[in-house]
Amino acid sequence: MPGWIGCAPQGDHIAVALVQPVAGGKPAIRWAEHTPWDQPTRALQSLRRSRALHRHRRVAVLQRSQYQCVAMDAPADVPRPDWAAAVRWQLKDTVDFLVDSAAIDVLAVPEGTSYRAQAQLIAVAASADQVRPLVEQAIDAGTPWQAIDITETALRNLSALVEPEGRAQALLHCQPHHATLVVTYGGELLSARQMDLALLLPADADDTTRAQAYDQAGLELQRTLDGIERAFGQVTLARLLVTPMPGAAALCEHLGPLLYVPVAPLQLDDVLDFSDVPELLTDASLLNRQLCAIGAALREA
């Protein structure tokens, strides 16, 4: 059955995962790999041989420094297919690269979620200097991308699997030096924020260091969720889920009393089939590294 291979570069390594739909069942993760990315073309060629990369649809996830997301009003009196072209020049004073050659796309914010009369969107802009090498490396390897994604939409796909009907949901994904918060509603992205929070702490971190990091996270999350509640007052936020990582349960326990919504770990085995990759369920660090690749591979089109 057809599926997608999500490829998420992470510095000098890349996370790669194949996810396939299953009729009447949970999407299945067929395999996942974390491999060096210091020579991207060579890495893709190796994956082409070992994992038949060329036989599946492939989506690449841009790294945090390679793009910017900007929330804004949708252009008035402009058809939805023309939004990306219309917002290009609105971004020229917001992003730190030239927009005339940039890759621009837009995500429509679900209607009826805000008190604002004007439709809302999230514009995604990536410098051509950042996207072009990624595209050329894949072509040189004989594995051109069918799509290019971002962390926020990869996490949106994961959140949509467990989103309560009729309510919004927040999802926090922690990486070594930062965290990404997405809020979804109806399977679509309401809001997203990259946060300079170090919550993926080493196992030998002392209690004081851990408590300080968690307290800072609680303050930042409270401010962010308050802002989202004001911006999207037509929907109710049901909960905050924390994606798998070492210490996720302790983080949830600490954040619970600090936030006004329930906080819990994301249980992916309820909605994804890990039968072919059981090691992901026993190694939280490994699953954490693979999450964006898995989320990107859950795309439907």
Would you write up a description of this structure?
The protein has eight helices and 13 strands. By secondary structure, it is of the alpha/beta class. Among the domains are: 63 residues, 2-Layer Sandwich (Nucleotidyltransferase, domain 5), CATH 3.30.420; 104 residues, ATPase, nucleotide binding domain (Nucleotidyltransferase, domain 5, 2-Layer Sandwich). It has a five-stranded mixed beta sheet with strand order 3-2-1-4-8. Strands 11-10-9-12-13 form a five-stranded mixed beta sheet, with helices on both faces.
Rg, alpha carbons: 19 Å
Note the run of SSEs as H and E. Answer: EEEHEEHEEHEHEEEHEHEHH
What is the number of beta strands?
13
Tell me the CATH architecture of the domain at 163-266: 2-Layer Sandwich
Shape: globular
CATH topology of the domain at 163-266: Nucleotidyltransferase, domain 5
Give the low-confidence spans: none
Strand content: 25-35%
Distance between the termini: 15 Å
Helical amount = 25-40%
Strand order of the largest sheet: 3-2-1-4-8
Question: Number of helical runs?
Answer: 8
CATH homology superfamily of the domain at 163-266: ATPase, nucleotide binding domain
The CATH class of the domain at 163-266 turns out to be Alpha Beta
